[in-house]
Amino acid sequence: MPKLECVVESKDILGEGVIWHPGEQKLYWCDNLKSNIQRYDPATGEHEVWDMPEEVGCIVFRENGEGIAAAMKSGFAFIHDLDGPEIEYIVDPEPGMDGNRMNDGKCDRAGRFWCGSMDAGLAEPTASLYRLDPDLTCHKMDDGIICSNGIAWSPDDKVMFFSDSKGEALYNYDFDIDSGAIANRRVFLDTNDKAFRIDGGTVDSEGHYWCAEVHDWHIGKYAADGNQLERIEMPVKQVTMCTFGGPDLDVLYATSATRFLGPGDAERQPLAGALFAITGTGAVGIPEPYFAG
To answer: Does the pLDDT at position 65 exceed 90?
Structure first.
């Protein structure tokens, strides 16, 4: 049976972007709405927080070791020094769209940085999906989205997962690893009749898709055909993202949020906004690729 532990009571408003750094053997994530980047060391329990000048949707690491690539309110950027912070802005894919912000993102295994935006009001399909290539050119890959989430790739690099949480669907695309093209978008999971929506997700070494079932107290595990295989009950209602970490990539880490707490919810969910570690799932993750730019 999986074992769950709260490892950092961070009280995040909107914990997102959780990602394991294999070289450091530490876990990074963001609080999108507190505008910070955080790091947790499982070996020592140390928890560090760096304030940023604007919202951070997600971060990835760079192959050249020179800091972090991030998707921020103002677009894609390099963060050369967290302590400064020293930020080099690359490109704003949505100039003038003040009602949008960058949200969920990851790198594919060719080192491209993918990130989708979201309508901050969670109502209008004004958001898009973008791909930042290693040469720092930015490409719009899809649009008509309300809230981008759930990006991940199958182990064979033939399928890309993508969720429009407010659009009530988790999609699959055909994915071409050589060109970075996506095609044939189809619904992998329709959440119109469910209590949850699909937030951040990841894929394990066997091709199962693990995801935060936000608004409904669970992390879900899905087979490649879309059938749900397992649900892990969480002590918080708003689970926001999960990823595999640890020396053997067999620890499932999950972020959460306090943003949607209603009257009395804080007393019922004292760990809302915390970071959790889940062991004993039997699953092993795949290392998250670094950005090649």
So the answer is: no
